[in-house]
Amino acid sequence: MLHTLEPFLQLPEISEVIVVVAADQRQRCADEIDRLNATVPIRLVTGGDRRQDSVYNGVRACGAESEMIIVHDGGRPLVTTDLIQRCIAACQENDGAIAALPSRDTVKELAVDSTLIERTLDRRQIWLAQTPQVFRRPVLLSALENADRQAITGTDEASLAEALGYHIAVVEGSPLNIKITTPEDLQSIRGILEDGR
Description:
Blueprint: H1 2-9, E1 17-21, H2 26-34, E2 42-46, H3 51-61, E3 68-71, H4 81-92, E4 96-102, E5 107-110, E6 117-121, E7 127-136, H5 137-150, H6 157-162, E8 168-172, H7 183-194
Parallel strand pairs: 1-2, 4-8
Antiparallel strand pairs: 3-7, 4-7, 5-6
């Protein structure tokens, strides 16, 4: 978690950090945060059942003066200050902005519950979403509240904002901005950290 927080704490644009954690992880996270001696206020908030519930809890904990809100996965510890700043800059011109990578592979769409190919998608139009995802505060609140009212579950915040017609820009992310989802991902990140990025 500390690797993930460090780039955010280095940026003058960041006025506060809200860390959303599971209830049973609060004390461990609080102990780690105390060791940081951060100059930016860091608060812990308990998460929800779904990703968007956790994000909603975090957004509601943000200070009212926050004009933009950055959502980032704690499981992406190699995020850089440059990527965060590029997402912030793109959000200033749009309703929101996300980091993403262009697909390098041919992408096949399958029939629902099938292993049969329906069609091949144009990979020039396929981008693989990452975080950070940055939104103007009213945009993100509106998207989360609408999803709550309509019982919509999104895989990321951008999809919830897109559903309301907001304009979300894409900033080219980094192949090193890996999300830890498997033991192999963790091994890759450890190797990158040992090599000094």
